[in-house]
Calcineurin B homologous protein 1 (Sinocyclocheilus rhinocerous), 184 residues
Amino acid sequence: SVLRPSTLLCLCVPVSHSQITRLYSRFHSLDKGENGALSREDFQRIPELAINPLGDRIINAFFPEGEDQANFRGFMRTLAHFRPVEDNEKNKDLTSGEPLNSRTNKLLFAFRLYDLDRDDKISRDELLQVLRMMVGVNISDEQLGSIADRTIQEADTNGDMCISFSEFIKVMPGKAVFEFHFRE
Ligand SMILES: [Ca+2]
Ligand SMILES: [Ca+2]
């Protein structure tokens, strides 16, 4: 099968770097209210995000918990996760000292797209939800369920049937993360 469990996990941030760069340059044109902040509706007007199966989750990443406006600073901070690793020097995260686009931070960003209830674990259900969005309608629920099971089996080392962040890091192929295997 084309869908190997570990490659599936790599599909989690299916927005390309060039798409993000375009979004970045469009912040001001997106800001219809000209108040220096973007609403969810502003983001939903972006075609690349509108057609992206994980578009809503990626949009959510731009909004701090409980807020409905994304200011330019937060916008840039979220975008920084998508920059290629060689830009690291310009992207220092002052709080942790680690660049936002380091492998760990990129993985954490991806992990959070799955972990909807923010309990720091990806459950089978959360995995299934993402798989369903990614693969479309050509795969039956049964097949999808078995892909989810295999993915969890491959990643889960402590036997709780969930994928923790440390388990997630171990199964993600380094090269795939470094390059970000985006869907165009
Ligand atoms: Ca969870
Ligand atoms: Ca586990």
Notes: DSSP finds twelve helices and four strands in the chain.
